[in-house]
């Protein structure tokens, strides 16, 4: 086992550190290249169909190049797919079009897809099923693509005409379709990601690029989605798309990123013809030179040609195109923030969609409300049809709807001062750029037509920060005529946007701990310098609010649900101040009209509240494993020793990692294991005192994984620190997941390995945590309080625990932990007002399952009835 916290040698000097960092980077790069090479080699092994088709593609290039005058002309007239070839009865083209590629870029992309996608898929699916998938997706996707192309003419006559005349060749469509086929029996995580990613990619390409190749790729993906279960079968895992909150963020981020990439495709694709390619008019127009514009405008400054020429000078060239694309780049950065659950990213994405809707509305009003008497050049010079004007509304409305529906997923706030620094950086950059623009512009004023003065340059500076396309309403006061003036004029705004992009991306990298990051950081500081219970690290989790004692030495973590201030475990702080903290928090709750309830607390807290006249109910059992004299010997530890011995024989080892810094190859497997576990339940992960991947992704939480010689992760456990007087004295088990088809006794092996490893480090105990709604013994035997409201609630909680057992297995978990012969310590719920018990029960249920949907509730009830 390796321990990331092991002490090292004294810190080296700067030069030595730099050399070490370079050596480490080079070592990682070599290992990653070696792994990539081995992955490609592994995928290519046993992939005869993929390698044969790759050979045909390259062999066709060589043969046809030597035997025909024009390789491309031959393909277009004999093998390429299109409506015209089908009309001319070249009925073989739905097959032959997937064998050859056209163009250097197409060959490079196709070759990469063969090696990275097609060959590994064939190795995974088997040659026979892969061959069937290739044929079905190539032919089916081609026919569906042609049908969609024929329908395209009904939507847009110009687009339909381009599709009618267009032809396509290349294997990209069937490779993507075959990947969609293979996704049918993938694990939950990758099935979901592959399907959402492929659909988003091909839809964006079809709508913005709009070429026949893009349409047939979409058709192949659709055919692959339908045919997949028939070719490879369905996955044994759940098929619905519901997943964890963390994965929901990833999927939303993928869709928002796709919406940002679409306009960029339109901007950089000179031949984009899709229905949304009308947005390319946001980025480019016909090329004019300054001399031509001066000639036209000199003859008639108010003419349409003069205005078009001035507009083109603003939109033409590399600088203006990049400046117009920068908002889309910024939206991509916001997508990364959405992936991390950041509230700022959600707000930024919503604002960006509102801006796009405002621009679309302005376009509509100008074109169809005659606000400019028909003289506008807004959005270029294309024919102002209703269809072309309506298109810009579609994407922003769809993205806004998605963001609104999933808004509860994005509640992570940044640490204190993050956005103060961000805006200070952005405003500072703007001020510096303003000074440079005016100063340099004044020095080279002869490089502009009209020789602008300082005030004119200063008045023009705000326009430099606005994407050029948004300036089409305004006549430019001056234009650059020299290369230096052009650089200053066009690239000032790009630098500003680059600073904004980098600063925003940097804000998302800063650690955040949930809805109240500032308070959470303060709570962490108190916890790590004082004392808490075995469950106290849970007080730092997302969803908690905090009450701090007047002296700041103690705090209580809580959440308010239905008027109940429900705490997470004991108060944190000096044990001598525990009673004062309980009383202080209770008074604070009363002042706010809440009824306090301490949940999952130790017997010490229950005794204190009992002396205050509160009532208590046992709600669980904590299992504690003392480490001082621990040795897994004797008959009672037979199962544990068996697991350890089997791990040695199977080549499975235990390895300590930190999830935030672990290699992607490891964390991705852990994420996949977790998503499959959630999908099998058909219910969302429970929260409150049960952590998920968000809680594992913490630099102070240690993870112990079971990995084999191929670096396959078979299981993972996470361990939270337990502090006493500012020193870590123990560790608490939280996250437990095992690969369904992996090493079966992975959990026994990992817990035993953690116990022995942490014993060597000097830890005093391990807490195997508690199992909610599960207790040792038969709780129905205690009938002394059955006539009281508290007794009735205790019996009700027992019934709920038994009912939920088939879904969440709390009692089975408690029985599993008994293999380690732990010491059992009861956990209590204590409250001052028995009349609030119905609200308390509701609050507990909503705390554990805050995101349960109606459909999931129906499945839960059905599962309980069936069992």
TrEMBL record:
Species annotation: Rhodococcoides corynebacterioides
Principal location: membrane
PANTHER family: PHOSPHATIDYLGLYCEROL LYSYLTRANSFERASE
This protein's name: Lysylphosphatidylglycerol synthetase-like protein (DUF2156 family)
Highest taxon of source: Bacteria
Subcellular location: Cell membrane
Regions that span the bilayer: 51-71, 91-118, 130-155, 161-182, 194-212, 218-236, 248-268, 313-333, 345-366, 386-410, 422-444, 483-503
Topology class, membrane: Multi-pass membrane protein
Taxonomic lineage from the root: Bacteria, Bacillati, Actinomycetota, Actinomycetes, Mycobacteriales
């Amino acid at each position: 086992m390796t321990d990331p916290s092991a002490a090292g040698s004294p810190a080296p000097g700067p030069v030595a550190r730099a050399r070490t960092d370079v050596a480490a980077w080079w070592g990682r790069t070599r290992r990653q290249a070696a792994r990539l090479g081995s992955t490609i080699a592994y995928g290519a092994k046993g992939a005869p169909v993929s390698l044969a088709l790759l050979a045909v593609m390259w062999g066709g290039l060589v043969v046809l190049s030597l035997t025909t005058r024009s390789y491309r002309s031959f393909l277009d007239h004999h093998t390429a797919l299109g409506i015209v070839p089908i009309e001319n009865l070249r009925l073989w083209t739905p097959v032959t079009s997937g064998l050859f590629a056209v163009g250097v870029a197409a060959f490079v992309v196709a070759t990469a897809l063969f090696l990275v996608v097609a060959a590994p898929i064939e190795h995974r699916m088997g040659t026979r099923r892969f061959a069937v998938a290739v044929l079905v997706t190539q032919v089916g996707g081609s026919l569906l693509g042609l049908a969609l192309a024929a329908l395209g003419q009904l939507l847009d006559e110009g687009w339909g005409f381009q599709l009618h005349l267009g032809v396509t060749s290349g294997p990209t469509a069937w490779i993507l379709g075959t990947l969609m086929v293979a996704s049918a029996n993938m694990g939950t995580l990758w099935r979901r990601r592959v399907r959402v990613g492929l659909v988003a990619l091909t839809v964006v390409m079809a709508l913005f690029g709009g070429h026949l190749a893009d349409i047939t790729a979409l058709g192949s993906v659709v055919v692959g989605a339908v045919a997949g279960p028939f070719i490879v079968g369905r996955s044994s895992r759940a098929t619905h798309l519901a997943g964890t909150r963390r994965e929901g963020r990833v999927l939303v981020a993928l869709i928002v990123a796709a919406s940002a990439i679409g306009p960029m495709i339109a901007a950089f694709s000179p031949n984009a013809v899709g229905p949304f390619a009308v947005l390319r008019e946001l980025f480019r127009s016909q090329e004019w030179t300054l001399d031509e514009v001066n000639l036209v405008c000199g003859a008639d400054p108010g003419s349409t040609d003069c205005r078009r020429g001035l507009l083109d000078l603003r939109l033409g060239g590399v600088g203006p195109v990049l400046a117009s694309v920068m908002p889309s780049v910024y939206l991509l950065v916001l997508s990364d923030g959405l992936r991390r659950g950041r509230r700022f990213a959600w707000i930024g994405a919503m604002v960006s969609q509102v801006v796009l809707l405002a621009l679309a509305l302005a376009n509509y009003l100008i074109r169809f409300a005659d606000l400019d008497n028909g003289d506008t050049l807004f959005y270029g010079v294309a024919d102002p049809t209703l269809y072309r004007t309506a298109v810009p509304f579609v994407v922003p409305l769809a993205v806004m709807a998605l963001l609104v529906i999933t808004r509860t997923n994005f509640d992570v706030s940044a640490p204190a001062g993050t956005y103060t620094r961000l805006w200070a950086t952005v405003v500072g950059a703007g001020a510096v750029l303003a000074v440079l623009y005016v100063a340099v512009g004044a020095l080279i004023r002869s490089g502009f037509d009209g020789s602008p003065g300082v005030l004119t340059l200063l008045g023009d500076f705000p326009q430099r920060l606005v994407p050029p396309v948004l300036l089409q309403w305004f006549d430019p006061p001056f234009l650059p005529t020299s290369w230096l003036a052009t650089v200053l004029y066009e690239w000032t705004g790009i630098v500003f946007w680059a600073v904004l992009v980098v600063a925003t991306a940097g804000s998302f990298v800063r650690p955040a701990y949930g809805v109240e990051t500032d308070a959470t950081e303060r709570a962490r500081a108190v916890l790590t310098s004082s004392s808490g219970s075995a469950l106290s690290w849970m007080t730092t989790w997302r969803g908690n609010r905090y009450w701090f004692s007047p002296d700041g030495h103690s705090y209580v973590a809580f959440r308010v649900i239905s008027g109940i201030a429900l705490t997470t475990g004991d108060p944190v702080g000096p044990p001598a101040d525990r009673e004062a903290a309980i009383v202080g928090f209770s008074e604070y709750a009363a002042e706010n009209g809440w009824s306090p309830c301490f949940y999952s607390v130790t017997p010490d807290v229950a005794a204190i509240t009992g002396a205050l006249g509160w009532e208590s109910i046992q709600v669980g059992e904590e299992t504690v494993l003392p480490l001082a004299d621990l040795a897994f010997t004797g008959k009672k530890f037979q199962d544990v020793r068996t697991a350890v011995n089997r791990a040695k024989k199977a080549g499975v080892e235990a390895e300590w990692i930190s999830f935030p810094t672990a290699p992607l190859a490891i964390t991705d497997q852990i994420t996949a294991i977790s998503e499959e576990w959630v999908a099998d339940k058909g219910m969302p992960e429970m929260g409150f005192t049960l952590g998920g991947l968000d809680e594992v992704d913490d630099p102070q939480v240690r993870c112990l994984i079971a990995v084999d010689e191929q670096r396959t992760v078979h299981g993972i456990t996470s361990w939270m620190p337990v502090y006493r007087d500012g020193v870590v004295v123990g560790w608490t088990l939280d996250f437990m997941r095992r690969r369904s088809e992996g090493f079966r006794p992975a959990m026994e092996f990992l817990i035993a390995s953690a116990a022995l490893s942490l014993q060597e480090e000097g830890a005093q105990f391990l807490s195997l945590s508690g199992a909610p709604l599960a207790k040792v013994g038969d709780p129905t035997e205690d009938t002394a309080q059955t006539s009281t409201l508290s007794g009735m609630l205790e019996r009700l909680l027992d019934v709920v625990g038994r009912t939920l057992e088939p879904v969440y297995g709390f009692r089975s978990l408690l029985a599993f932990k008994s293999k380690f012969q732990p010491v059992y310590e009861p956990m209590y719920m204590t409250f001052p007002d028995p009349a609030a018990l119905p609200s308390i029960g509701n609050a507990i249920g909503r705390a554990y399952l805050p995101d349960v949907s109606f459909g999931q509730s129906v499945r839960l009830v059905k599962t309980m009835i069936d069992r």
